[in-house]
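A protein record pairs a chain with a discrete description of its three-dimensional fold. The following entry can be read in just this way:
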Amino acid sequence: MVEQKKADINSKSGAIVVVGGGISGIQSALDAANSGFKVYLVEERPSIGGVMAQLDKTFPTNDCSTCMLSPKLIEVSKNPNIEIISYAEIQDVVGSPGDFRVTVRKKARYVDAQKCIGCGICASKCPKKVADEFNQRLGKRKAIYLTFAQAIPPIYTIDRENCLYFKKGRCRACEKFCPNKAIDFEQQDETIEVEAGAVILAPGFETFDARLKGEYGYGRHANVLTSLDYERILSAGGPFSGHIQRPSDGRKPRKIAWIQCVGSRDATVGCEYCSSVCCMYATKQALISRDHDREIETAIFYIDIRAQGKGFDRYYERARSEGGVRYIRSMVSRVVENPQDKTLEITYVGDPGQIRVESFDLVVLSVGLRPSLAAKNLAKRLDIELNEFGFCQTRPLDVVSTSREGIFVSGAFQGPKDIPNTVIQASSAAGAAGALLADVRGTMIKEKVYPKERQVAGQQPRIGVFVCHCGSNIAGVIDVKAVAESARSLPYVVFATDYLFSCSTDSQNEIKKAIEDHELNRIVVASCSPRTHEALFQETLREAGLNRYLFEMANIRDQNSWVHVANGQDATEKAKDLVRMSVARATRLKPLLDMSFEVIPKALVVGGGVAGLTAALALAENGYQTCLVEKSEELGGNTRFIHYTEDGARPAEYMRELIQKVKGDPLITVYTRANILDYSGHVGNFSSTISVDGEKRSVSYGAAIIAMGGEVYKPQEYLYGQDDRVLTQREFEQRLAAGRNELENVKNVVMIQCVGSREEGHPYCSRICCTDAIKNSRKFKELNPAANVYILFRDMRTFGFREVYYKRAREEGIRFIRYEPERKPHVVEENGKLKINIYDQNLGTEIGLEADCLVLSTAIRPYPDSRKLADIFKLPLDQDGFFMEAHLKLRPLDFANAGFFLCGIVHGPKFVDESIAQAKGAVSRACTILSRRQMFIGGALAHVDEARCILCLTCVRTCPYEVPKMAEEKWAIVIDAAACQGCGNCASACPRGAITVDHNTDEQYIAQISALYKLSAVAG
């Protein structure tokens, strides 16, 4: 049920069309809808979810892909401001920015979407089986089908090409057995037109067709698979239910090989770029294979390992040193099948230069990412420029722009990228569209209305228990049905069952139906982590008319099946214990009320570099007053020293223009030589004290963006600081920018990579260094064509389209010499000359180089002040000292602390265009708060029993948020409910037990602990 807000009369439309229903389109749609815009989400397939729905796990956290994606799918389906138009394609977009008319062709499903309830009876009765595209044709589906179990929308589709009725004029079994009469064989394609102010293109990608590399035998050898094929084999919802087996004979493989760069870094097939993700997903697949079966031997054949993302290098090193994954640096020329046993023979050059032959049971081809033909055709219809590889052409430093104003791009259609960068860019595109339409925000939105809440006070607990298989994440270890059966015998449990995925749409609907049918007044879900799924299930309770605090979650995955993989029997018993404990706690749960408050429509931005300035300007473009705080005297940060990029942009010039725009914007207040001293409040209503040249000022704001940047490591090695000829890349760039005269006597330049990166204490990749080295070496060769340039490297990490510049550097005569960390280059000064000794792996001997200039590619490090700011705002840092996001994959712009967002180098090393995109994305996330008139504070808050309080001030000293205050008139502590974070520190520290945190009471936990030991407990 929804109520339509009154629309303003305006020539602009307050709607946005998002094209593509993968994770990119989903994130753009959610951000836009939650920021006050109507969204039409158009997807060419019958359901949304994209390629992420086909993945088993995601790196580097190894989280279940379905578990992460399902809440997003359901959030989209439940959002009253998102209209999903699936099984459809964009035909045309006419008009101007702010006032587009978008023509959409909806393909006939031959199923009435209004009548279909997704029961699946039609598919069970359909006699026709065909190859299942979702399972990469490794399994079968029916001619009437749902794409996958968690599909949104959950509407069946008839495959006209394979339906017996359409091919032979007979059957119609689906029509006969459909209980809702939803089958409509007369249905026709339909053309509709919608008005929108902006369009976001997020059509995703397709994987490279491995048949084009015939030497590997894909399509001829049954046991040669693509990486996406193997994802479906690993998946519990896949064709083999998560059991690793050979397609040829169903046997368990003992040796599996991965071949990298199939359809990437390969000019012979028109794919000279790097697909960015392949090294990491191969590493993930190898690790997970060994998690399935420790006897499996895994080998990855590669050129360079590209682990350039946050947390990626640690993941790679763990696979190499602890995970038993063997890495072989060699290009594989062909795969030969043994016709007798279907094993696969690979010939390669091993270390040290010996030719070796090895047999494998399975070979997985790590295929690259390409734009789909449908995406290319869409771009042609919309007059959108594409680059030489068929991806969307964007402007330098603006990765969400297209050649047509008002149309933005997001995700892998802009270029190959991993999930976190896709999500960041999706938010960025939504933010750009929102800025364009800021003056019509809220004119077309609907408010969600919930049913009246049932009153359960005084009722005896009637508990429903729902146990999740989580594919094979739980059910692969735990006997789920036995856990559900055990739950049925527990006190106050009147209903218990199990689901394959409890977070799927059909399961959510069944939970709501069970609440109604069995008059349940408390719910326990035994599945994964409340960190990712609790809000989803609480929303389901609200839709069923129950208070959301009557929900309890037992984590039988993270705390059980994932840590007891080798002992299923004991894990099952532990799961029963965890469920019994959760049921006992549920008997003590009470409904709580959320408090409403007015949102302050202002923002705080900390940091005056490119990320902070971009964020401030984007906030102003969205119509919000912004306070920008910069600790130094001058705005601009690191970007002031970046004079050019590999693709022709001029960041330093861009920065000067950006500073002028920020300073001239009336909605932005800039404070330099300023520091944050404190903060208080809660999401939507914060306040801080700022010191500006020693003078204190108070600011109030609804959301904050942390963008304080980072710094370049000052090396202690390789004679830096001892010899003027040893420079960092930044210092070398300054001289190059000054012109030929600065370096006219330099004939030999040597560059050393990974100085301060990928080493003990700093085991991360600084992401930009390889590209910086190539950029500056090519610039130097341009100024001095006869000079010699040597780049000493471990892995060249020129991912994405940057690979093209790496190739050009080689063609221009720049020489690359690889070294291993165990044998780093050795630099000495002898007789006035700089000498560098390095072991050349290809020659198998040590060589000496002389340099007129030695350039060190140094690490990006977090500012030392990051920790101080983190302490003030109570924000977490990661192992490397960068700020830690709420979730590495799906919440890379958010902090776990509501109302705080991050962008730029403060999050981790990144390029200027990535910082700009992340800043705009952070603004998009902030707008989901600032665009609201009011918000609600949760009911799980602390309160004080004044009669028991002795004013010892323990809680005052303990609270990290400085919320408890002394009320002299009461001679007791008072806690401001609006400011309380519900963390419970005060309650646990109070010596008198005078403080209680609702929803986390002693009574609830005593009942839970007692249940572990099977002590009697009576519901209160």
Notes: The longest strand covers residues 88-96. Confidence is low (pLDDT under 50) at residues 1-9. The first helix runs from residue 23 to 34.
